[in-house]
Design a protein that fits this description.
This protein is mostly helical and 143 residues long. It contains 5 helices and 2 strands, in the order αββαααα.
Length: 143
């Protein structure tokens, strides 16, 4: 019985994490945004309570190498998944899950980790770029 309680607790935390943090990352990266009437007309694939998923949003969701190979059926499944996640996200906001102390901590920790990792990634790219240029100037091949 104790194992079942532990599994339930882990499952509950994973569910809370996946329903709140993952959509936050997606929104943080600007994959989904509402469109004003003044913006360039773009094909809207789905709308959930005023939030649109456009073709360019879909391209941002799918890694570039795979997008061209997607069938209409695959795209439909991705759109359906987006709609379900958006509905869950909007419901979470409506009932103010983000104000729960545990969720606030998870969001804070996730944001710190995301930004720290991005800084390291950008710094690594800058160092690698400088190293390649210095090697090229010395007549050595780039990596």
């Amino acid at each position: 019985m104790r194992q079942l309680a532990v599994i339930f607790t882990i499952g509950k935390r994973f569910f809370i994490f996946s329903v709140t943090v993952i959509p936050l990352f997606v929104i943080f990266f600007g994959c989904f945004e509402t469109r004003d009437n003044d913006e360039i007309d773009e094909q809207i694939l789905a709308t959930v309570d005023g939030v649109h998923l456009t073709e360019s949003d879909l391209i941002a969701i799918v890694p570039g190498d795979f997008y061209d190979g997607l069938t209409a059926e695959h795209k439909g499944k991705i759109v359906d998944e987006w709609v379900n996640k958006e509905l869950l996200y909007q419901e979470a906001l409506r009932i103010e899950i983000e104000k729960d102390p545990e969720i606030e901590r998870l969001l804070h920790d996730s944001e710190r980790n995301l930004l720290s990792n991005e800084l390291l990634e950008r710094s690594s790219r800058a160092v690698n770029w400088n190293l390649e240029n210095n090697l090229a100037e010395m007549g050595r091949p780039k990596f």
